[in-house]
Amino acid sequence: IAPEVLLKKGYGMECDWWSLGAIMYEMLVGYPPFYSDDPVTTCRKIVHWRNHLKFPEEARLTPEAKDLICKLLCDVDHRLGTQGADQIKAHPWFKGTRWDKLYEMEAAFKPHIEGEFDTQNFMKFDEVDCPRTGSGPLKKTFLAPKDLNFVGYTYKNFEAVKGLRHSFSDVKEFGPVRQASTDSFHSDSGVDYSNSDK
Description:
This protein has 198 residues and is mainly alpha-helical.
């Protein structure tokens, strides 16, 4: 979520370019740029992005990758892409990309899939029951069978996150953290599988 969205300043498609920068950072580094265990702290870090956008040395990003991320995760007035996607396509990080042949290019990785429910290409994690926060009632969600593959799916890189717990000790500077509202967060425990054949 771009800072202008969180600050309710009004926004346009430029906020999507912020999201592209956040996704690019996560794909290249292994965790989100403004990571926190608490959504309120994450939002505070986004709003104060100048103090929190850092690149870990172990990520070994090229100068072009860092430059593109910085030009996407910045003030809306200076954000790359505000004049259209061609601005981003022209960035040096995309040098050599044949945009006109994009749909004809071979994929760098072609996963072997044995069926609709094959998950062999995903890491296995122990199931953990997460405590539900808030006191509001559970919201039930009815899912179609095709959607069941994605229940609880999230990208996890625990090795990268371990080092963050100590490096984000500056969280105290934001003041007390309030309990997040459960209105905008859904718990997997609220999923009703009994009617998933609808």
